[in-house]
Amino acid sequence: MNIVTREGAVTVSGPAVPARRRRLATRIWSERWAYVFLLPTLLLFGLYTVWPIISSLFYSMLDWNGLGAERSFVGLANYREALADPLFWKSLGITLVIIAVTVPVRVGLGLLVALVLNNPRLPLAKLFRTALFVPVVTTTAIIGVVMGFIFDPAGGPVNQLLLDLGIVDQPVDFLGDPGSSLWTVMGVHMWKWLGITLVYWLAALQTIPATVYEAARTDGAGGWASLRYVTLPMLKPFLLIIVLLTAIETMQIFDLVLTMTNGGPYFSTLTSEVYIYQQAFASSTPRLGYGAALGVLFGLVTLAFTAIQAIGIRYANRARSTS
């Protein structure tokens, strides 16, 4: 206990508190209302993100159908079974094929459309942007059901158009043929999500100062030269970020595949998320524990993409600061 004398007054203070702890307590108290307003978000994040992750790890070590009270602890047996499951590797391979095909198309086509729609002299540019973004905000399950009717071999408008133009002699079963089902799903997926990639590129184009283009025109650069030597080099730091964001979004294709093909025919469109759902809930004998183990393994793959994205963002920020 310390005795402090100041101008004849005597005060008694307790044990000395470290200065760093006092500063932290003072800062928390001064910003207390910010923490109060953050509390609902933190609570919801804990209930709907942190707790499901923890519970999935726990369930992945159980032999449980998710319905009854009878469940047994099996440790890492579900993980060993998953790593030896050929359908799991097939579903992961199909997911990676979808990423490898759709991501370059979405990124390249989105950049091309963004360059066109970013022209201030283009008439109805805002209308075209809205039209391309409408599928993004449309419910994926509804799109999947509607596309099932559109590609229906028995009277669907796509087959009817192909027959009327004489391109095919008989209807094509786009979603029922293993050779075309995956390509059809990928086409619908690219059409639906092109708008979000377009927004990424439009946002990146807005970061290029107008003075740079004015300087290029002063030096005699035309439209093509400005695109080649000004626009594309300044967009390069954003490329990796947009590619990784698009890849992570593409891994979440569950609802579209489920409503269009349900993973068929003959597992030709069986993505990882659909296979996890089938094992955990939709099979004749649900295996929630095994499905949780599959989900954890797929989550690790997603986490790897997220880590690469973080590295890419750091690289892009460094490249922008040095340019």
UniProtKB/TrEMBL annotation:
The lineage of its organism: Bacteria, Bacillati, Actinomycetota, Actinomycetes, Streptosporangiales. Belongs to the binding-protein-dependent transport system permease family. Keywords: Cell membrane, Membrane, Transmembrane, Transmembrane helix, Transport. It comes from the Bacteria. It is found in: Cell membrane. InterPro entries: ABC_transporter_permease, MetI-like, MetI-like_sf. Its main location: membrane. The chain crosses the membrane at residues 33-54, 92-118, 130-151, 193-216, 237-258, 290-313. GO terms for cellular component: plasma membrane. One of its GO terms (biological process) is transmembrane transport. SUPFAM superfamilies: MetI-like. It is a multi-pass membrane protein. This is ABC transporter permease subunit.
